[in-house]
């Protein structure tokens, strides 16, 4: 008798005039908790993706901008004096400081080959630390790009299931009772794609920029190693320093 009463009430209900995300989350004025939870999860994923994108982009731009002034470091008479010209807590300053620290300790190595390996390993560890810091947060973007469409699809499946149940209770399969609820359910799939696509694009873009920075770090680390092993004799080729404008002659 209860099912018959539900069917009668559904048949007597006024036809739905509007469709959208609100009606999908609150069908017949009742909250669709699965749909709401799906929307909240997608919103958190989207916010996290854009937060990582902007923070990592600023971090990358800072490191690249600091590298543009690396010529002033190499023009210094020694690594210690050049390190003072680099910005503190920067990736480039860290590699130089780690190289200087390894140089101070390599005298304790008995074998010359062991000393070289110690210097090379110390600089490699410093370089790997910087690369790992730059890669932080990228796994979240990859996870969002891979899972967001399926989370949206899950919301769609549940929405279509609820729509079919309501259609069955109403005892009518007319186009207005099928197209509206099914269309509302498909909104979740669209939202999942809307979250996933920017995350994938951001991941690939940031990954490409990280590879560029890794190449710069590797080259800089190699130059530091060569400079230390040659006692400062080997330095990379640098463009000529900008000429200082002459002071005006007073008449």
Account of the 3D structure:
By secondary structure, this protein is mostly helical. It contains nine helices and no strands. α3 (33-67) runs parallel beside α9 (175-229). It is rod-shaped. The N and C termini lie far apart (111 Å).
Query: Ends: how far apart?
Result: 111 Å
Question: For the report, how would you describe the main beta sheet?
Answer: none
Radius of gyration in whole Å, from Cα? Answer: 31 Å
| Number of continuous helical runs | 9
Quaternary: single chain
DSSP strand content: under 5%
Structure summary, number of beta strands: 0
General form: rod-shaped
The poorly predicted ranges are: 1-16
On the 0 to 100 scale, the average pLDDT is: 79
- The SS-based structural class is mainly alpha
Order of helices and strands: HHHHHHHHH
Please estimate the helix content.
over 70%
List the helices and strands and how they pair.
Elements (H helix, E strand, L loop, with lengths): L1 H11 L8 H5 L7 H35 L2 H5 L4 H5 L7 H16 L5 H24 L2 H33 L4 H55 L22
Helix pairs in contact: 1-8, 3-8, 3-9, 6-7, 6-9, 7-9, 8-9
Task: Give a brief description.
The chain has 9 helices and no strands. By secondary structure, it is mainly α.
Kindly list the characteristics that best describe this protein.
single chain, 251 residues, rod-shaped, mainly alpha
């Amino acid at each position: 008798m209860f099912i018959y009463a539900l069917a009668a009430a559904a048949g007597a209900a006024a036809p739905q005039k509007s469709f959208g995300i609100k009606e999908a989350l609150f069908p017949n004025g009742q909250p669709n908790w699965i749909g709401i939870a799906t929307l909240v999860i997608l919103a958190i994923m989207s916010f996290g993706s854009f937060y990582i994108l902007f923070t990592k982009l600023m971090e990358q731009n800072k490191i690249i901008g600091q590298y543009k002034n690396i010529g002033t470091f190499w023009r210094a008479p020694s690594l210690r004096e050049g390190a003072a010209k680099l910005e503190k807590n920067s990736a480039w300053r860290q590699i130089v400081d780690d190289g200087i620290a390894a140089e101070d300790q390599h005298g304790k190595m008995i074998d010359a080959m062991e000393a070289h390996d110690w210097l090379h390993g110390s600089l490699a560890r410093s370089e790997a630390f910087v690369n790992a810091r730059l890669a932080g947060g990228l796994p979240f973007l990859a996870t969002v790009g891979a899972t967001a469409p399926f989370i949206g699809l899950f919301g769609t499946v549940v929405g279509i299931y609820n729509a079919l149940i309501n259609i069955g209770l109403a005892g009518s399969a007319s186009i207005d009772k099928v197209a509206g609820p099914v269309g509302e359910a498909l909104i979740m799939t669209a939202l999942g794609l809307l979250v996933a696509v920017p995350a994938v694009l951001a991941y690939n873009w940031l990954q490409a920029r990280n590879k560029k920075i890794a190449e710069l770090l590797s080259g800089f680390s190699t130059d530091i190693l060569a400079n230390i092993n040659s006692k400062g004799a080997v330095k990379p080729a640098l463009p000529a320093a900008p000429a200082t404008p002459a002071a005006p002659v007073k008449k």
